[in-house]
């Protein structure tokens, strides 16, 4: 165990690791409250329309089926801020997969059999689920996600492009992508004397409590939501989803504890997806490689019940020095499930397109792609003009090139081969914004010399318990083993959700402040501690969310080596390297895991992951892990993650930046650029599946 001087930054083992591998850790569907029953949703079988009639009689005759909730008999909810949560409130069917009934049974098998026995008649309407660049329904929204302006323009990008010595005008396509966490979305809810208690698979129980309280017209202190262990989320558990509302409704209706665990095939319809994005990139440059014009235009889709605009053009506002630029978003409302957050929303698809275009420009200029990026390094943030709090992208590129032996690369396409295998290498840059939200925390000193830190953080597999204990130990000046953390319960001091790579920065700030105050209290205290101990509180409202005079981002560089089989079209990544500049690294063990996890997800985005929307039925064809292919162990090489430690005083007391998402950003572009280097063919649509690659080979 690390001593006091090295608690922050040490490779401490995650505290819940043994419980997870031995099965002691309990997830949302595994809380066996006495009398618990199960519920199974009935999904709409039309892409647009309404429910004309529901026959539940056959289902209710089955053994152990208790009841069937429909829009005619389900509890009435208050109007939610998020319309995707207004389940079983009316007969409308906004998309295929929308819940039209919920069957409750004594066992999971009974509930599932009952759901299969429900007969639903629909009034179907014409539907449209197909995204195209020139769709007549496309419009420019007021904002893209995150509050970013939908359009930004500086200088005269059109004229500068026309007069540029070297011009690139190209398109890229990223398909719908699905989060598919290992633990499907699940909740166990029960009512106790008017109080609602829920175990939910969620990235933040504070917001789930507030949402459930509003929906069921309860004071927030009459709702408790717990997410002690969460088996991944990747954004899909960042806001409340229909399963937790359905569980609470069924529990109220039956008077029994109810578990709803969504079947995996329903996840694409009910918990969000990364919307497809159509990109047009126009880059103009001098013969020496300096960008004179940069235009990135994105078209994406949203559902008809909730606007969600993937902010994929935003990274182009940050990355490179271009005096003339235009970035814009258009969105098409379709009869599709509502898209939502997925790891690095905006940055992952946007940087794939931008970094692929930069590689194309380097080829046109006959310039090294590393040097092209360095030549366009901005002095200040191009969009806002703010100085960067720290920006070590050049150092990441240089260090990555050294580690990857990039200088000895032959830039000629198809220069290396081994039998039927073509070998190529590629590079791409990465960036992700620093996001910090207000949180509260308490720190308690116990008479036995131990300390307890309480904050409603959520550990979605990132090691939050461990790193927060390290932050506390560092602030208190005590050994790490003397600090215990309590997280994952809405009755604890409220905190922001685990999303946007903001968790540790947000919670850690509050924990650091509470522990610093507790240290001051202890310094003034004389004699033994009282039996209740001594406590200090912290609330970072007004400080963590204060406007900054700096542009704050993490940066990185990805290098990939691939082999392309000219007989089968199969692409294999033989080496993957990431070098990052993300502030101080607070735990080298869990940080490396986060970087590698993001890079692996980026590999999947490049080679295996992709979904298609069936135009006739309005359904995602790849709805489960048999059809939606995430990388298996055999697909993933020995991934290398390195970093450059930054001393950035403009972030938070720990000097840290988020690391959970930057690993996926740029990885797909680096792999795609390597495939071009191997084959001489530029593929502009993901994923690079064997059929697609083989069709493009000469």
Q: What is the CA-atom radius of gyration, in angstroms?
A: 26 Å
How far apart the termini lie comes to 57 Å
Oligomer: single chain
**Mean pLDDT across residues:** 97
β-strand number: 28
Largest sheet properties? 7 strands, mixed
Q: Report the total helices.
A: 15
**Strand order across the biggest sheet?**
3-5-1-14-11-12-13
The percent of residues in helical segments reads 10-25%
Which structural class fits the helix and strand makeup? alpha+beta
Strand content: 15-25%
Give unreliable regions as ranges.
Answer: 1-5
Can you characterise this structure?
The N and C termini lie far apart (57 Å). The model is unreliable at 1-5 (pLDDT under 50). This protein is α+β, with helices and mostly antiparallel strands and 698 residues long. The protein is globular. α8 packs parallel to α14 (667-679) and α13 (588-607) crosses α14 (667-679). The strands form seven sheets. The chain has a seven-stranded mixed beta sheet with strand order 3-5-1-14-11-12-13, with helices on both faces. The chain has a five-stranded mixed beta sheet with strand order 9-17-16-15-10. The longest helix has 22 residues, at 503-524. It is 24% helix and 25% strand.
